[in-house]
Amino acid sequence: MKAMLTAFVATALISVAAYYTLQGAGYSAAEKTTAPSSVRLN
Known about the structure:
Helix content is 69%, strand content 0%. The protein has 2 helices and no strands. The protein is rod-shaped. The termini are far apart.
């Protein structure tokens, strides 16, 4: 039980750290999946 709880806490901490690190580096799904050719001009 203690090992499972430790794994859950470690996973949560790594996820939060990765989220903020990648956001700070400019890696977001919106920036990576938007191509200049997908802009609609009317």
